[in-house]
Amino acid sequence: MSEAVLELRAVERTYKTAAGGLTVLNGASLSVGRGELVGLVAPSGAGKSTLLHVAGLLERPDGGDVALEGRGCNALTDRQRTLLRRGRVGFVYQFHHLLPEFSALENVVLPQMIAGAGKGAAKRKASDLLNRVGLGPRASHRPARLSGGEQQRVAIARAVVNRPAVLLADEPTGNLDPTTSETVFDLLVSLVREEGMAALIATHNLTLARRMDRVLTFQDGHIAAFEE
């Protein structure tokens, strides 16, 4: 495997419940290299979303550490983590979460401007990327006028427009029909390979999971190789 871009090092995560502590991650470790796609397959409630939230610096682990491009993140302040997440991590969810009042182009422009890009440069880059994902003619349309697959392609463009080192996806095709799922997944693979991102993708779709470089699952809060 190429150099590690994303590492989870013996990560622990326990939630407080009325019945006591609920341990979801118990010494979970993994490593994802540049340009590598790693699938994460497990039943609902096993901890996939928690793992992605910890990996994406949305939650702090109770133990262990997360490293992005070799940099440990536990000692960082909340502001430092936010800036690192904004610049180096892209997220794709099952539901696109596009801003409904903005066009496809504007949805891809916005994260660039938040990161400090000028409006003109951000519009040019967004337009180029939407053309690349086959949505150039639909760039001026708001999400409500786009199909589910088109909305998800815009969401992927938004996630990668700032060229993150890590792409985290939580059931990115889970809300799509099988044919559209294939199209969206093919796009995701193409962008990951071409941009050299490290991708960790949670999915229930075993057909798509088998096309990734490796597939992982949970065993008592640990990460293990998935075996059918």
Automatic annotation (TrEMBL):
Ranges for domain ABC transporter come to: 6-228
Q: Write the record's keywords in alphabetical order, separated by commas.
A: ATP-binding, Cell inner membrane, Cell membrane, Membrane, Nucleotide-binding, Transport
Q: SUPFAM superfamilies under this entry?
A: P-loop containing nucleoside triphosphate hydrolases
Q: What are the protein's GO molecular function terms?
A: ATP binding; ATP hydrolysis activity; transmembrane transporter activity
Record's GO cellular component, any one?
A: plasma membrane
**Alphabetical list of InterPro entries matching this protein:** AAA+_ATPase, ABC_transporter-like_ATP-bd, ABC_transporter-like_CS, ABC_transpr_LolD-like, MacB-like_ATP-bd, P-loop_NTPase
BP term (GO), one? protein localization to outer membrane
Q: Is the keyword Transport in the record?
A: yes
Q: Look up the domain of life of the source.
A: Bacteria
Q: What family is reported? A: Belongs to the ABC transporter superfamily. Macrolide exporter (TC 3.A.1.122) family.
Q: Which PANTHER family does its entry note?
A: IMPORT ATP-BINDING PROTEIN, LIPOPROTEIN-RELEASING SYSTEM ATP-BINDING PROTEIN LOLD
Name-wise, this protein is ABC transporter ATP-binding protein
Species the sequence originates in = Marivibrio halodurans
Q: What is the lineage of its organism?
A: Bacteria, Pseudomonadati, Pseudomonadota, Alphaproteobacteria, Rhodospirillales
